[in-house]
Amino acid sequence: MPHDVDRRPSGLTRRQLIRYSAVTAAGVAALSASPASAAPLARAEAIPTGPALDGFTRPAVATAPRFRWWWPNGQVDLEQIAAEVRTAARAGFGGLEISDVHHSVKSGLDIDEFGWGGAHWVAAVETALATAEEEGIEIDITLGPSWPAATPNITPQSPAAIKEIAHGSVTLSPGAAFSGALPEPITPPEPGVTERTLIGVHALEIVSVAKTTVLRRASLVDLTGEVTGERLDWTAPATGGSWVLLAYWERGSGQRPEGGDHTDPTSYVVDHFSAAGAQTLIDYWEANLLTDRIKSLLGSVGGSFFEDSLEIETHATIWTPKAREEFQQRMAYDISPFLPVLVETKEKYLYDYDDIVTTRVRDDFNQVMSDLYSEHHLIPLRDWAHSYGLEYRVQAYGLEQDSIAQAGIVDIPETESLGAKNVDDYRVLASGRDIAGRTLLSCESSAYLNKAYLSTWRNDVLFTLAETFCGGVNQTVLHGFAYAAAPGAAWPGFAAFSPYNGGVGYSEAWGPRMPVWAHLDRVAAAISRTQWVLQQGRPQYDIAFFRQKGWAQTGIGAPWATAAGIPIGWSHGFLNESGLFQEHSVMQGGRFAPQGGNYRAIILDIDRFRGSEATMSVRAGEALLALAQAGLPLVFFGNWSAPASTGYRDEATNQRVVELIAQMRALPNVADAAGNDDIPVALDALGVGRTVSHASSTLKHIHRVDDGNDYFYFVNAKHNPAKDRLALIEQDVTVLGASDAHVPYALDAWTGAIRPIAEYRRNGAAITLALRLQPAQSTVIVLAPVGWAGTTAPRAVVVETSGDDVSVAPDGAVYLHATQPGPHSVRFASGREKQTLMPALPEPLALTDWSLSLDDWQPAADGAATHHVTHRVERDALGAWSQIGFAEVAGIGDYRTTFTLDASWRPGTGGVRLSLGQVLDTFRVWVNSMPVDHVDLTDTDIDISAYVRLGRNTLRVEVASPLINRLRVVTPAVYGVVAPQAYGLSGPVTIAPIGKARVA
């Protein structure tokens, strides 16, 4: 039986790191009073195991990260399919998305025997689903071979196939006669396109020729009725300028899914703008792919049907057979006279009209096509997915479409880090999700061009996750996990995008072929916990930027906010017209959409997509006026002195927009902001403040509220990855919570620990505390009642101290930490002050004598399996492998050393911090053969107080690398262009004392 779709967080989170540095590892354990004979230190403040918060302390599948799972069509071994499901599941990943993607394979695929959708492909899907059921994870399935969605049972001539308008043109001098066959299309047909239908012929006078050709709109002559058998006799007027004769043909575009051949017969892309296209897709699946066994398994372990971005591509003009009829019905005018300004060649418009803003017509056409995509593709496929208990996950962008609205139509909107130009590109889709009451925003994450087998978690992936999370993403689908083998694939195996056109290609082929795989279970758990937090309750923002279009992945962000507002704590989302008419689009308590963003104010921006025009639809204007009259603060940003309607409208409609805007601007809760610097002035005048405040920095946050508790995800992240630079953040942050009775907690995603915070200042519901975050590092602060999640409250609250930070023991005792000896003062929230003396601390220890066992991964004799060669280095083992004689090595380095804590590290003086210095890539740490739990890959300073002992201690550090240094010499034709990378433990490595004294 199909199971009910339920995406409520149920116990885990997927992507990223979390750490609140001012409250480290539950405090630092005191050294044991035993003599220096290897007696263990006290573990009173060791890794917490008490408080529980289901889904955070115990990550679960619902919020675990997933992989895009690339298959070379159905050319797979069933036992290997099962093994790969087990591998991903047992590493802590919650799902795999089956995608037939093989751009790197240029030949050798047997599409007759192993094509997409064939009997063996179906058997492989059944195997994947059955194994997933055994392992307790989910399987998502892409709706076609590669992308866009396509089926092999249609041809370009089929009514369900995607269509285009191909136009031909000829220029006539004044008075020149045309007689003969109509001009052939400028764009030749694709293979398989054998039919065409003439839909119109126009002649227009040319006004001027420049970047585009300007045509006199009033001169248009419709010659369609004069055509006989694709031949025409017509003479241009003798007076005036030259004329252009345009002929338009509707034909199949012949578009095929990406990445080569997938099926025999060839699959062609379905029409995404007609009901016939979606129905053909559904019918093909029902008749050929959904066996009884698959249907049964989908009901228990199926996650979602998936579609990639809407990459409908043609060198002509995208079209659908009912476009003219639908346009007339929706826009109340005929599109035919405007075909001259709609036709494109290689995605460039060729003509403009002389007397109107031509882009207004194009906007109307784009909106109609967007609506058709929503109504005839997204909605029917979503409802069909539900019939099998699945959700529908879509990257609903790629064209000039209303992606904000579409993010709320599908169950799970998805974005992608490769195409995002900045964090606002994520916020656009997150806003569409929020206003529609959806929970998830998924992200195809961490694909990088020319970084195959070169991507690192510490320098690449964790930075990308930081950016996506602060943009509202809360589900990660990593790009990607590749099936083991394919014809022609060299060691270490098949990778969908490498080699790519002879080059390095796109990253990454994660899985057991990668040395870092052994470390990714903890990364997966940290991501899972973070995503659990980011799926709690509902999001809240300070302000919304209203824009005329819902386009996504444009790089066009919010004025002022991203440059100046976000750096000091402001948060924002985006709304367009569709966002004003959702179920959650209501006023309550002076806020707009309390369950869909909880915005305090709306900033009405000019159209930055179309020449900065001040436009607004009548429908949107009436809704905004009603909100303003109900008390919602509005700010008109930019020059609104001459507003007009969006789209191509009559004068009466334009005048109505003028009147609506004038009524709004006359209200006392509406202000103007001519430039960026005027926005904060206007917000202040309207009494609109922010929830989070701090000095300008790269700190960013997401605020969610669940059951009256405030969750704040903080991260040190870039806004524009190509330009921004990050540095350590150490600053105070003020957060405004829901209740002045709530107290702060720190959640550690790397361990699942929940720790009360004992050092903060309160002003009513506002709490000020200190954050310390390395680049790409994050933390979660929760404001909740005393005793939340089973914790014990601190025995006192510290508001000021001369020490470094304060921690809370499991019994509520408060400890001061300091790296400087001598007297220290503590002032409590009660007003009481306390003096304490921190004893002298021993000198830090530099660890310089190491032994290194280097597991070198190489291709085996068969060219497919991995052969392991061990290199051993004693003493001077620190430094990148490329610097100590192993420039060609990729694999896992096992570093070992010892250190002695003598009597000067006496009991009661505090704890011990290990600093690893420079490390690349992933790492794990053991002290005295015990794995250190708190290893945050963004921070190489690690509290090891709970693991050390007086006397001799052993330290082991394991570092794993990508494979590029080996591939440079194994396959130099592809990877030789990459310089040797500095992998390994470079240090310097030190052991330092931390003073500690109990103060409450």
Automatic annotation (TrEMBL):
Keyword Signal appears in the UniProt entry: yes
Keywords noted in UniProt: Hydrolase, Signal
One Pfam match: Glyco_hydro_106
Secretion signal, residue range per the UniProt entry: 1-38
InterPro entries given in the database record: Galactose-bd-like_sf, TAT_signal, Ulvan_degrading_GH
Gene Ontology MF annotations: hydrolase activity
PANTHER family linked to this entry: DNA-BINDING PROTEIN (PUTATIVE SECRETED PROTEIN)-RELATED (PTHR36848), SECRETED PROTEIN (PTHR36848:SF2)
Protein name according to UniProt: Glycosyl hydrolases family 2, sugar binding domain
Organism: Leucobacter chromiiresistens
